[in-house]
Design a protein that fits this description.
The complex is a heterodimer. By secondary structure, chain A is mostly helical. Chain A is built from 15 helices and two strands. In chain A, α4 runs parallel beside α12 and α10 packs antiparallel against α15. In chain A, about 50% of the residues are buried. The chains are: A mainly alpha, B mainly alpha.
Chain lengths: ~350, ~120
């Protein structure tokens, strides 16, 4: 299978050949930044288009089909529109915090985005505490939501932000505990180590029942973390206009929009990495020919294929289930998901200690 | 090297926000008026500020969250080496978890998990 570290080390040695080490390093860092920005923007555009098409299909509509063939430039047109809209600042709002909130959201999502392994050797932040870093960095976005609601000085924003804060911190627990369960099975917290450990079988199959329970808990909690789907009551449009970003306009609203879709990608990407083997191809023990054919598919295709499959499942949730009330959301987390998660953690510990997995 | 990359990614986010805001600032029109700068609520002028005392229920859940989140921080190092430490460590962790679950059960019994 193709290893991307060949390309990166080639670029590194070529740059070091023609210029001093510090200049080569600087150029590499700038390259990394540019690549991250490009991929980030492309993924956001593709997700906006995909959301509209999937939503259209679920509601027996066509979805966007005017701008470009099959409407594929609709998302680009939306981005341009957002850029040239006026930025309105409310007179009584806290101007500094108002401008800071989108920045915090974007920073949290870009840094979590950098932690994901996109392919063999294609990995920006590969620390030995990878999952821990990703959880902690993505948790910062709660601060952004709370600040946005608080700084707007609007009752709708305030209620939306408070609901969102309660919901996001609650589901953060289930997210952390289901990740903890899988860390136990992998024996490491680094993403590359987790993916390597799944070479002989994805964790969803390897971990028997606890892995399956953790997967379901993770999907529910991840969906709630992104403020989407049945858990979108912080921005319930029928009661709170738009929740915490009611007062935002133009590109500042665009930043929230961008961060929401990238958080969706990150949740799906982590699900694909931790449960479905990341960029590891599908291997069935004993089927040598089948495994060899699967190895020919590039690792990037495997990662993005699994991630977009998970995104489709999350969108399916969103357009299928009705919105929950705030008491139902908190009951679901504290009375069901959290006890199930803690019990599941112990079950997985027993399975790992006695070596019951294959 | 690795930690520098963290700063690089942070600066990438910074560049994204600053470049985006600068572009929006250059491209977007700016026609200010008093009506536009009012909060978007009901159409009638809003009464009072929104920076006020808020429902205590949210605060309760924040405190409960703190308890379990710190627990997760303690469990992460154990989860990495659970295979080497074996059964004895599991028993110890079970005791630790028992204390926490008792706390959750107490909160449940007291009705702190009930949204009122």
């Amino acid at each position: 299978m193709f290893d991307f570290s060949i390309v990166t080390s080639w670029i590194d040695s070529m740059l070091r050949g023609v210029m001093p080490a510090w200049a080569a390093l600087t150029i590499e860092y700038v390259l990394i930044g540019v690549v991250i920005l490009l991929v980030y923007a492309l993924i956001a555009l593709s997700l906006i288009y995909m959301e509209r098409k999937v939503c259209g299909a679920f509601q027996c509509r066509l979805g966007p089909n005017r701008v470009g063939p099959m409407g594929i430039f609709q998302a680009v047109a939306d981005m341009i529109k957002m850029l040239i809209k006026e930025l309105i600042y409310i007179r009584n709002s806290d101007k500094f915090l108002f401008k800071l909130a989108p920045f915090i959201m974007i920073t949290a999502s870009v840094m979590a985005f950098g932690c994901l392994p996109f392919g063999r050797g294609l990995h920006v932040l590969d620390f030995n505490i990878g999952i821990f870093l990703l959880l902690s960095v993505s948790a910062v976005s709660i601060v952004g939501v709370l600040l946005a609601g608080w700084a707007s000085n609007n009752k709708f924003s305030m209620i939306g932000a408070m609901r969102s804060g309660a919901q996001m911190i609650s589901y953060e627990l289930s997210l952390g505990i289901s990740m903890l369960t899988m860390v136990m099975l992998a024996g490491t917290m680094s993403f590359s180590g987790i993916v390597e450990a799944q070479a002989d079988g994805w964790f969803l199959f390897k971990g028997h029942i606890p892995a399956l329970i953790a997967f379901i808990v993770y999907l529910i909690a991840g969906n709630a973390e992104t403020n989407r789907g049945p858990f979108d009551l912080p921005e319930a449009e029928s009661e709170l206009t738009a929740g915490f970003h009611t007062e935002y306009s133009g590109l500042q609203f665009g930043f929230f929009y961008l961060a929401e879709y990238l958080n969706l990608f990150i949740v799906a990407g982590v699900a694909a990495t931790v449960f479905l083997g990341g960029w590891m191809p599908l291997h069935i023990p004993g089927w040598e020919g089948f495994n060899a054919v699967m190895d020919y598919i590039p690792s990037v295709v495997w990662f993005f294929g699994k991630t977009y499959l998970m995104i489709f499942v999350l969108m399916w949730f969103k357009w299928t289930f009705p919105r929950l009330r705030v008491d139902q959301i908190l009951t679901l987390e504290w009375k069901y998901l959290l006890p199930i998660g803690l019990f599941n953690l112990m079950l997985m510990a027993i399975i790992v200690i006695f070596g019951l997995h294959f | 090297m690795e930690s520098t990359l963290l700063i690089v990614v942070f600066f990438t986010a910074l560049v994204l926000v600053i470049a985006g805001t600068a572009m929006a600032w250059l491209l977007s029109p700016s026609k200010r008026n008093v009506q536009k700068e009012l909060p978007y609520e009901c159409g009638v002028p809003t009464r009072g500020t929104s920076w006020m005392q808020f429902k205590v229920g949210y605060y309760l859940f924040a405190i409960l969250f703190l308890m379990f989140d710190v627990e997760a921080v303690f469990l992460f190092p154990w989860a990495v080496v659970v295979q080497e430490l074996g059964l004895l460590a599991l028993v110890n962790v079970l005791f630790f978890m028992l204390v926490l679950v008792l706390g959750l059960a107490y909160a449940w019994k007291k009705g702190a998990l009930q949204w009122k």
